[in-house]
Amino acid sequence: MMIHRPATGLATLLWIVPPLVFLFLFSGIYWMWRETRNLSFQYIRNESENTAEIILLQLSDFLYERNKDLSHLASLWEDVSPKSRSEKFLRDATGIISREKTFYAITYIDSSGNIVLRSSLQTNDSAVPLTDLDLKPYLDSLKIYRDASITSHVFLSSQGDSLIALLKPVFEKQNDSSVFSGAVTGTLILNRLLPMVISSKVQQNNNIVLYVNGTMIFNSRSSSDTSSNRFSQENASGSLKSWGRIWKVSVSPHEEGLLKQLLDQNNQRFFINMIASAVVTIFIGLIIQLLYRSRFIRMRLEKSEQRYRRLAENSPDMIFRMSLPEGRYEYVSPAAEMLTGYSPVNFYKDSLLLTKIVDPYQRENFQKKWEELFKGIISNKFEYRIIHKNGSHRWLHQRNVVIFSKEETPIALEGIINDTTTEKNAILERDKLIKELEIKNDDLERFTYTISHELKTPLITIKGFLGYLEEEATKGDISQLHQDVLRIIKATETMQRLLNALIDLTRIGRITQKPEPVDIHSIITSVIKSYSKQIKRQNVSVEIVSQLPNVMGYREELFELFHNLIGNSLKFMGDQSEPHIKIGTYLSDNETIFYVQDNGIGIDPRYQERIFGLFDKLQINTEGTGAGLAIVKRIIFHHNGWIKAESKGIGKGTLVSFKLLLT
Amino acid sequence: MDNEESVILLVEDNESHALLARRGLSQYKKPVKIIHVINGEAALDYLFRRGSYSDPITSPRPRLILLDLRLPRIDGLDVLKEVKEDEDLRSIPVVILTSSMAEPDIIRSYYFNANSYLVKPLDFNDFRQEMIDLANYWLDWNINPL
Questions:
Q1: Considering the domain boundaries, does residue A603 fall inside one?
Q2: Quick check: A220 contacting B, CB < 8 Å?
């Protein structure tokens, strides 16, 4: 499992985002909520203030209008004759009351405060307690001042129903001066009046309290909910000075009023917004996680891909992937260029490139293997030789893995090719050496038992005939004895020849000095010289046919080589009438080959292979040990050459060809 | 059979050895006819009645073949192989008589179905006795189809 260290800083940073977003949204929502709440209060307060003001103005207007009614009634005392005055007063007053239902009663009181005239909607409303009102000081002051300019006055009662009494003083002219004679009073019940005033102009559900000179005389709230009203603090008031009194109206929003609606709406919005922001936050968190994870995975993939690619790119081995069965290279690592001399591009262009550069003599086998691979027959590894672009031979070792699809069909071949030239050459060299050693060992073994056999042969003869010799001597059989002695002597001679041949044979290759250029022509001349008597006796013509090149080798061994070959030709000349021996060279495959040719008895084609074997004689009645050609072969091998003998059959002569290293 | 001379084919390139064998066999109680050939080619020519050996009267079928191994031209083992591959000749006992004690020779001889492998004794008396015992065993005691 890979641990992704560098991303931790980034990750922490990313995870801070959702809480931050939430905090931001929350503070925004909270701010909005508070602002809205404040505005709601502000609005309601403004509304209340307006309401208060309107109520006061309405009230003031109303009182002014009603005062005008009373002024009209008061004017009766100036304009109407005293006897029709009462009648007129009652008629007009009743008219006013029926028109303006707000009036409770209209009376005329004398200067002492006693009711003189009275008009009321209700007939038995004796309960109207004008007496409750402390009129006396006012009436008294009017008596004293007798000032006709004194206008109406308002009296209030706080007992029972809130009452307002308007007093319009009436002055009568007596002797050029105005005398206070009484007053027209109109009583109004605020409990009835104010709702009428309010209902037209003012928001329902507002709580309205009226104070006059600081005394509460009206409260639209029922007493029970006064204490529980949470908006009781949120009141607004207006005040007005009129009729010598300070009128004050206090308006506070009702429990179930607009403010509540606004606040509830605001609260609701706040919660909805909170939920929305929480959802948004979670959503952002999820997106971040998603982005982060995909980015993280991508980074991890990229990293691991990079790592493997680097591994492949830097590998000294050629790494490839080939899609099957099309056999197209999907990837070839740059090492291809070093291994084959061809760049990966060459491989991409030509998917058969490898087959083309395989050593021609291995091509068939390689193609077979290659085709097997496409069929899905897996050769895990194989080795082949290619010709590098620079012309050199390279051994490549290829290991394969076939990638199968889910359906078990091969879809790709992945492999690693490395250069095993050095190892392979070493192995080939070793194999060659082993083979050589095996041959040498075989040779040695054969040599050993050949020698033991060949040496034992005369020994058996000697011992055998010595036994008979003894018997013959005892019997005195002289003639047989003589023959047997000759056999014994002959056997000892054979033995000596064998020993000499063995010494010759073992001497070859023992020479420790370095090979030197040898003049073959002079060697052959001296060989011919050494056989001059025999040549003369057999009347053989010996001919050096061509110019003989110099050879790198060992003079003594080369002398022995030609001595044996020419000696053999002379020995097996047979009864040829015109015997001749030819020595020369010919060209074969651009190589200079030496030959010694005679027209002697030749070799039966069946036995041509055997003639170079040690002590192998084709004819037993000829002289010699059968070691001569074995020695020849050994000399040739010591000179890293080869030798072969050809004859078209008995009596058709022999051609011995051999290769030597030229200078 | 008894009144006839037993024929032994002696394949031996060394004339002295052939003479030693001949002398040893002459000590055998019955007269034997020894036909001596000096190489493998001649041995096969005789056995297959080729060339100068075509007359069955002068070249009778041998009752025993004494075969040396190291022969010129055709080697003793090749002669053995051909004899044992031939349906008619294969019943003739082939005794290898050689101076070689080399393991490969012994193994190969038996591989090609030699009936016996004898090494020529160095001692003169042993050699003679071996020849007599050989004749006794192969000509007297040993039974062969015709």
A1: yes
A2: no
Q: How many residues does chain B have?
A: 146
Tallying the residues shown for chain A, one arrives at 663
What residues in A contact B121, CB-CB < 8 Å?
460
Q: Domain B6-141 falls in which CATH fold?
A: Rossmann fold (3.40.50)
- Other C-beta atoms lying within 10 Å of the C-beta of residue A631: 24
Residues A113 and A219 in one domain: yes
Q: What is the DSSP letter of B137?
A: I
DSSP SS3 for B35: strand
If asked whether residues A71 and A137 sit together in one domain, one would say yes
A362 with A453, same domain? no
Distances (CA, A) of B79 to A422, A427, B38, B69, B94: 49, 41, 12, 9, 10
Domain of residue A548, CATH code: 3.30.565.10
Q: Across the strands, what pairs with A177?
A: A174
The answer to whether residue A400 is domain-embedded is yes
**Residue keyed to tokens 């080798």:** A553
Per the listing, tokens 């070691």 go with: A627
Q: Does the CB of A592 have a partner CB in chain B at under 8 Å? A: no
Whether the CB-CB separation of B136 and B32 falls below 8 Å is answered with: no
How many Cα atoms sit within 13 Å of A337 on the Cβ side?
7
The ipTM estimated for the assembled molecules is 0.84
Segments of A297-380 assigned E as strands: 318-323, 328-332
Nearest to A189 by CA among A225, A161, A216, A170: A161
CATH, residue A46: 3.30.450.20
Write out the residue range of the structural domain in which residue A544 sits. 512-659
CB distance from A468 to chain B under 8 Å? yes
Mapping DSSP to helix (H, G, I), strand (E, B) and coil, where does residue A101 land? coil
**What is the C-alpha to C-alpha distance for residues A601 and A608, in angstroms, rounded to an integer?**
13
- 10-residue mean pLDDT profile of chain A (663 residues): values are 50 77 89 89 82 82 83 81 83 84 80 79 57 72 70 68 77 75 81 70 67 76 54 73 80 74 88 90 86 83 86 87 83 88 89 84 81 68 86 87 82 87 88 86 78 82 89 86 89 86 77 82 89 87 86 88 89 84 88 89 76 65 69 86 84 87 83
Q: Can you say whether residue A445 is alpha, beta or left, with left for phi > 0 and alpha for psi between -120 and 50 degrees?
A: alpha
Residue A259 counted as domain residue:
no
8 Å CB contact of B70 and A453 = yes
Residues A78, A39 share a domain = yes
State the DSSP code for A607.
G
- List, for residues B45-80, the tens digit of each pLDDT value: 999 999 888 888 888 889 999 999 888 778 899 999
A415 and A370 Cβ atoms separated by less than 8 Å: no
Q: How many CA atoms lie less than 13 Å away from A270 in the CB half-sphere?
A: 15
Are A139 and A26 in a shared domain? yes
Contact between A652 and A586 (Cβ < 8 Å) = no
Closest Cα in chain A to B70: A616
One domain, residues A203 and A131: yes
3-state secondary structure of A399: strand
Does a structural domain hold residue A62? yes
Q: Which residue among A452, A457, A618 sits closest to B17, beta carbon to beta carbon?
A: A457
Euclidean distance between CA atoms A625 and A497, whole angstroms: 7
Q: How far apart are CA A471 and CA A15, in angstroms?
A: 125
Q: What are the two backbone dihedrals, phi and then psi, of residue B66, each rounded to the nearest 5 degrees?
A: -100, 120
- Going along chain B, which residue ranges are E strands? 6-11, 32-37, 64-67, 94-98, 116-119
A171 and A33: one domain?
Answer: yes
To the nearest whole Å, the CA of B25 is away from the closest chain A CA by 14
Structural domain count, chain A: 4
Q: Are residues A222 and A352 in the same domain?
A: no
Nearest residue of B to residue A608 by CA position? B73
Collect all residues of chain A within an 8 Å Cβ-Cβ radius of residue B120: 456, 460
Contact list, A459 vs chain B (CB under 8 Å): 122
Q: Collapsing DSSP states into helix, strand and coil, what is residue A242? A: strand
Q: Which residue of A has its CA nearest to B128?
A: A464
